[in-house]
């Protein structure tokens, strides 16, 4: 596996945009269906707050498969949301989801060393959150610490789901390969992350500023920023696929099954 130059990170962003442009309505519909399903799961008492995180790897394969379909010239439909549930690797994907949950709770838990648990309360809703507690607290530093602590886990998780699903890897091997693949392409991932940070923050800020100067109507600003944020999120999801193919290659093309003839059936 050759090391990738830093500029590859920007190419991943451009490839994500290119994938989105081929089927923008279809991929956006898939994303909105996913968001609606997550909201529905949130209604389930107790476990409803945990399920969205546990199911991240399962639904991640929905978007990876969608990008695969776009690349192969196939239409993307909302039923791709179920592709992970139909996979023979479902149990392993769910185990990966549990690790997602534990890693996230662990990172946020460590942040309590900095702010006394304010960020933890904000994320979990345990014990309530008083706005006065945030004033003068170290919650910003706690957020940064949680993000830094989570980085090694994110590296191990990044490619784990497709490696489990498309390469039939066991959980431990998939985490191992993912971690070192991301580490080896570290410069490319650094630029990739910075690019999305700039796009995700500066672009909405620039648009909201321009609209505010021209119209100065908060309702219109929200009306414009909401679809913009959805589009940017969908494009970012589409860019995950190129990060995989650049390192592990494209998945084997899915062949359309041909019905057996009467002769072959005999």
Automatic annotation (TrEMBL):
Cited InterPro entries: BPSS1780-like
Top-rank taxon: Bacteria
Keywords (A to Z) from UniProt: Membrane, Transmembrane, Transmembrane helix
Taxonomic lineage from the root: Bacteria, Pseudomonadati, Pseudomonadota, Betaproteobacteria, Burkholderiales
Protein known as: BPSS1780 family membrane protein
Residue stretches spanning the membrane: 31-60, 93-119, 139-167, 188-214, 220-240
Keyword DNA-binding attached: no
């Amino acid at each position: 596996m050759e090391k990738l130059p830093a500029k590859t990170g920007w190419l991943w962003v451009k490839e994500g945009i290119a994938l989105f442009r081929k089927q923008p309505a279809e991929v956006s519909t898939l994303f909105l269906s996913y968001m609606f399903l997550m909201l529905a799961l949130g209604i389930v008492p107790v476990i409803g707050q945990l399920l969205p995180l546990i199911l991240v790897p399962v639904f991640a394969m929905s978007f990876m498969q969608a990008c695969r379909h776009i690349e192969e010239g196939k239409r993307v439909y909302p039923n791709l949301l179920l592709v992970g549930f139909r996979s023979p690797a479902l149990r392993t994907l769910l185990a990966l989801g549990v690790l997602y949950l534990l890693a996230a709770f662990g990172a946020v838990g460590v942040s309590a060393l900095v702010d006394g648990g304010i960020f933890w309360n904000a994320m979990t809703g345990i014990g309530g959150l008083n706005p006065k507690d945030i004033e003068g607290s170290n919650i910003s530093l706690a957020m940064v610490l949680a993000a830094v602590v989570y980085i090694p886990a994110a590296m191990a998780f990044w490619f784990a789901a497709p490696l489990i699903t498309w390469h039939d890897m066991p959980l431990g091997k998939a985490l191992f390969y993912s971690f070192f693949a991301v580490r080896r392409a570290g410069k490319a991932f650094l630029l990739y992350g910075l690019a999305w940070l700039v796009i995700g923050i500066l672009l909405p800020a620039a648009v909201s500023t321009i609209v505010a100067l021209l119209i100065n109507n908060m309702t219109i600003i929200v009306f414009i920023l909401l679809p913009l944020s959805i589009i940017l999120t969908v494009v970012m999801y589409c860019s995950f696929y190129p990060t995989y193919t650049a390192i592990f290659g494209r998945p084997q093309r899915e062949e359309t099954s041909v019905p057996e003839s009467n002769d072959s059936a005999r």
